[in-house]
Design goal:
Blueprint: H1 2-25, H2 29-45, H3 49-65, H4 69-85, H5 91-107, H6 114-125, H7 136-148, H8 152-160, H9 165-179, H10 185-198
Helix pairs in contact: 1-2, 2-3, 2-4, 3-4, 4-5, 4-6, 5-7, 7-8, 8-9
Length: 201
């Protein structure tokens, strides 16, 4: 009986995934978004968190690719919620999660009201007693992400909480050469050094 129930459940999941794919192909993005959420809640109820993570990550990227920003962002936030439900991870699993969080963050528009909320939610998830402001690796990935969008001040803030002083230095060079005056180079350096000292780094 248990095997039959599992087989039926697997078939239902495949049916829903098929409907999602058809909805995406037909441009029925609201329908696809709701089906993603339906399947997410099913996985979550059954404590199938790995399946939920994969579904939400891939679903968010599919919706972002089709310029469905609000729906993609919603699934991205749900992805963080799933991460919060799993506490034990190997280093490899943690690295994969950090990479995925950064990938999704890259797709959230910087003028979106959810931009800061998503970033804060991700850093809260990555926080620990050792790293109360968020894991340095996630900060590093976000710093490079922000740097790629020329958001230098925000990038510097994330670099401060990472362990990548070299990357921070290179970013500051680009920041100064593209936006600073020749007489301000020492101010940019001193400001950053003082921030490192405040953080006892």
């Amino acid at each position: 009986m248990a095997a039959q129930r599992q087989a039926r459940a697997a078939q239902n999941v495949m049916k829903i995934k098929g409907k999602i794919q058809k909805s995406l192909e037909n441009g029925e993005f609201y329908e696809a978004h709701q089906l993603y959420r339906t399947l997410y809640f099913r996985f979550s109820t059954q404590s199938k968190f790995q399946d939920a993570e994969n579904l939400l990550y891939e679903g968010a990227l599919q919706l972002f690719k089709r310029n469905q920003i609000s729906s993609g962002t919603d699934l991205s936030k749900l992805y963080i919620e799933v991460l919060e439900k799993r506490s034990l991870r190997t280093d490899t699993e943690l690295e994969d999660a950090f990479q995925r969080v950064a990938d999704l963050f890259k797709n959230v528009p910087k003028d979106s009201p959810d931009y800061d909320a998503y970033k804060a939610q991700a850093l809260r998830w990555a926080a620990s007693q050792q790293y109360p402001s968020g894991h340095p690796r996630l900060h590093q990935l976000l710093a490079y992400n922000l740097w790629s969008f020329k958001r230098y001040s925000e990038s510097r803030q994330s670099f401060l909480y990472s362990c990548d002083g070299s990357g921070c230095g290179k970013m500051l060079i680009e920041f100064h050469t593209s936006h600073g005056y020749s007489g301000e180079v020492d101010m940019i350096i001193v400001n950053t050094v003082l921030q490192y000292l405040v953080l006892k780094k």
